[in-house]
Amino acid sequence: MRTAPVTEPPRPVAGDLTMGGVLRSEWTKFRSLRSTWWLLIGTVILSVGLGVVVIVLEISGGGAKQQPPYQVAQQTETAALITQLVLGVLGILMFTGEYGSGMIRISMSVVPRRVMLLWAKLSVLSVIAAPLTLVSALLAFVLGDLVWQSHRGLVHVGFGDPQVTRIVIGSGLVVAVTAVCGFGIGAIIRSTAGSIGTLVGIFFVLPLVAQAALPRSVAGLARFLPSNAGDAMWGGAIGPRSLSAWSGFALLCGYAVVLVAVAGWRLRRGDA
Amino acid sequence: MATAAAAGVSRIPVAGNLTVTGVLRSEWTKLRSVRSTWWLLSTAVILTVGVAAFVSPAATSGQPAPYTLARSTEYGSLLSQLALLVLGVMVFTGEYQSGLIRASLSVVPRRLLLLWGKLGVFGAVALALSIATSVAAFALGELAQRARSGHPHAWFGDPQVTRIVLGAGLVLAVTGIFGLALGAIIRNTAAGLSTITAVFFVLPLVFRIALPASDQGFLRFLPSNAGGALWDAALSPTSMTPWTGFALLCGYTAALVAVAAWRLQHGDA
């Protein structure tokens, strides 16, 4: 009896858990969800579409003559405000989607080293989000600029002009880092609705409330809010005062790092 | 054997047991037994009333007009608006996400009755809470101002103050219902929330920054600005008159509720 031949399938053993494998599985999960593609395509369309529309309206509105190059660049990147929401949601869904569906149990059974799971998800998200936002920002500027140049009498705008390169690249970077902030929030809160509510509250509603309701002395603090800090990079910050471009961006990155660190700590030490 | 089994069954639900009160009661149970409801609502109230204690009217010198002060005490209600939108969207999407909707529709096969039940319970809670919040925010904000400067600024008798304070509350409740209807149409939490927060908070901001002033006229018709008109807080260069703005917001909401009802009634569930 015991001699009966057994054709065993290759057995997974401890030690099979490689970063490459985890990355591959995260990539499969990421790309096989419809919502991923909706959000990514939405980002590109919004960035480029809104950038061109804004320029067309600006020209047809007649107020375009006096604009310095950096303002034109800012206008082509307006969509960054809304793609922050779109990619923030994508970041949030990386973890909350799994908690919502129960998939997280399988993920953690298969990858018991939880922080590894976090890094793999974060890598997949950033490797996709950063190039995507940069390309969208570039496209938005190039197409918007083409429309701009096609009208006679307007000042020439190109990458050589002061601040233009920083604004174009910066707006893309800010959106990508916002996605990482969303990722951290989602991994900490674990509920889709709670995370989106928190993201919107911090990034969009608080700046409005601060600007509208707070006395001038306190409203200055609004420049340290993550959205205003990041948007200082390309000139989209709202409020009486703004940080300088790179310190604002550094602060936004700081927030992202803190959020991801808290998420890692929570995953490691807390219940999953 | 058969009689023994029958004796064990005390109450058999039959067709005709489906009453409006029963549906309302079950919806109330569902709403209050979810922890997130209480988290969201208490956070919203605390933040809104808390912001009111720190506001100062934009008027730089002299005593602000009563209605300016009233408006500035209500700005925190934007945070409550977000909370009520989330809660409203979740009324339906939460059930679709957890699968509870199958049980709900099996028990209440008359789908519109389910919609009205949810709308009734959520609307009543939202209305009571938002009016209470806006009144508390105004009262606390005014008292804080009074304590700082020593003389009374504004109270309910002053021109427009009552409209602004109660209006801010009314707008909150209606936006909550807006969220509920959108959730019933979209049925997915992430999609519903992204859409509605984009419409209420991001688009006004984007258009405001992006468009030349001459093209900003239509911004007053956005739901958020139409509602904002009722308490003089529209974030657009021009504003509708208070009650037409509110009527427009109610119109948008009614249209969404109609679409939601149509989809529930005629589509797959």
Task: Describe the protein.
The complex is a heterodimer of chains A (272) and B (269). Chain A has helices at residues 19-31, 34-61, 69-76, 80-101, 103-110, 114-149, 164-189, 192-213, 216-219, 226-231, 245-269. By secondary structure, chain A is an all-alpha fold. Chain A has one domain (35-58, 66-269). Chain B is 73% helix and 0% strand. Chain B has one domain (22-266). Chain B has 11 helices and no strands. Chain B has helices at residues 2-8, 20-32, 35-54, 66-74, 77-98, 100-107, 111-149, 161-186, 189-210, 223-228, 242-266. With 269 residues, chain B is an all-alpha fold. The A-B interface holds A 35, 50, 54, 57-58, 61-63, 75, 78-79, 81-82, 85-86, 89, 92-93, 96-97, 100, 191-194, 196-197, 200-201, 204-206, 208-209, 212-215, 218, 236, 238 and B 36, 39-40, 51, 54-56, 72, 75-76, 78-79, 81-83, 86, 89-90, 93-94, 97, 189-191, 193-194, 197-198, 201-203, 205-206, 209-215, 233, 235.
How many angstroms does the end-to-end distance of chain B come to? 39 Å
Task: Summarize the largest interface: chains and residue counts.
Answer: A-B, 41 and 42 residues
Order of helices and strands of chain B: HHHHHHHHHHH
The end-to-end span of chain A amounts to 44 Å
Mean pLDDT of chain A: 88
The structural domain count of chain A equals 1
Describe the main β-sheet of chain A briefly. none
- Mean pLDDT across the residues of chain B is 86
Number of helices in the DSSP assignment of chain B:
11
The quaternary organization reads as heterodimer
Fraction in helix of chain A: over 70%
Q: What's the number of extended β-strand segments of chain A?
A: 0
Question: Ranges of chain B with pLDDT <50 over ≥5 residues?
Answer: none
Query: How many domains is the backbone of chain B divided into?
Result: 1
Secondary-structure element order of chain A, N to C: HHHHHHHHHHH
Judging from the principal axes of the Cα atoms, what is the shape of chain A? Answer: globular
- Rounded radius of gyration of chain B (Å): 22 Å
Radius of gyration of chain A: 22 Å
